[in-house]
């Protein structure tokens, strides 16, 4: 257990470092996009800069949540502050959905009234390529950490949305450069909104699943129960509860009915250690609590029938 806690702390520090690097990159690219939008006259590029501004705020939230989540447990918050990551992810999901609505409204507005704005397609293209490269690098940095932290995953999805946005801005810039067709900006904005929304909804569903204390995705409670009941001396497993504090932090509790001989022979401590090792090794559940209780005659007869 000590080794696991130590590894978790290292992972938290690594996540904060990655989030900080991504934040610096995102904020820098955002400023470049604002300048590029002003100089080129591109509304789409300015909208993408607003997207980057929102993502910068989301990364700040994610970074603060990661720092808070690393605080140790105390007598009042016995599980520590790991749920802070979930609340950070919730804010990120809501921001993504709100941003999608704004982009969609602006895109439709531009299609209905494209105006007479002349866009400097070449400058728009250069700035969008810079954004694409920066976002790709940020995604690469966060790709491993996002598998174990719902909070980092929220930031990862934000950066993914930026990367997709940059790709469509690049496409719009090429269309404007080659054909002069300005509505390409509006179409790119609508495509970006349509691609961001499913990811935001997916993140929101995952947050609600954690807050509702549902069993982690891919966890088969019946399989775990059957596995535990296969240990010598175990008669039955009941009152099973499985939930997760945040992504990658599942918790398991259960009552285990065991044969009277297990207690009489002093084997209860060994059995308890074996059951906890089973959860850690076979089901990747490091935090498990078992209540061992002697099985009644009816349970023993049913088990050996």
Written account of the structure:
The structure is a single chain. By secondary structure, this protein is mostly helical. It has two domains: 210 residues, Alpha-lytic protease prodomain-like (Up-down Bundle); 84 residues, 2-Layer Sandwich (Alpha-Beta Plaits), CATH 3.30.70.1350. Helix content is 70%, strand content 9%. It has ten helices and three strands. A three-stranded mixed β-sheet has the order 1-2-3. Strand 1 and strand 2 form a beta hairpin. The longest helix has 39 residues. The chain is elongated. The N terminus and C terminus are likely disordered.
Structural shape:
elongated
Number of domains: 2
SSE string, helices as H and strands as E = HHHHHHHEEHHEH
Described by strand count, sense and barrel closure, the largest sheet is: 3 strands, mixed
In order across it, which strands form the biggest sheet? 1-2-3
The average pLDDT value, as a whole number, equals: 77
Helix content: over 70%
Alpha-carbon Rg, integer: 26 Å
- CATH class of the largest domain reads Mainly Alpha
Strand content: 5-15%
- End-to-end C-alpha gap: 38 Å
CATH architecture of the largest domain: Up-down Bundle
- By secondary-structure content and strand pairing, the structural class works out as mainly alpha
Count of DSSP H/I helices: 10
Number of beta-strand segments? 3
**What is the CATH topology descriptor of the largest domain?**
Alpha-lytic protease prodomain-like
Low-confidence stretches: 1-13, 299-305
Looking at CATH, the homologous superfamily of the largest domain is Cation efflux protein transmembrane domain
